Amino acid sequence: MIDKVAETPNSSVIAMHAKELLLALSKGTTIAPLSERTASLTIDDAYKISRLCLQQREDDGERLIGKKIGVTSLAVQQMLNVHQPDFGFLTNSMHFNNGDCISLSKHKLIQPKAEGEIAFCLKNDLQGPGVTAEDVLDATLWVAPCFEIVDSRIEDWRINIVDTVADNASCGVFVIGETHTPPREIDLALAQMQIQKNGQFAGSGLGSAVQGHPAQAVAWLANTLGEYGIPFKKGELILSGALAPLIVAKSGDLFTMEIEGLGSCSISFCD
Ligand SMILES: O=C(O)C/C=C/C(=O)C(=O)O
Question: Which of 193, 214, 228, 250 sits at 20 to 30 Å (Cα–Cα) from 271?
Answer without folding.
Answer: 193
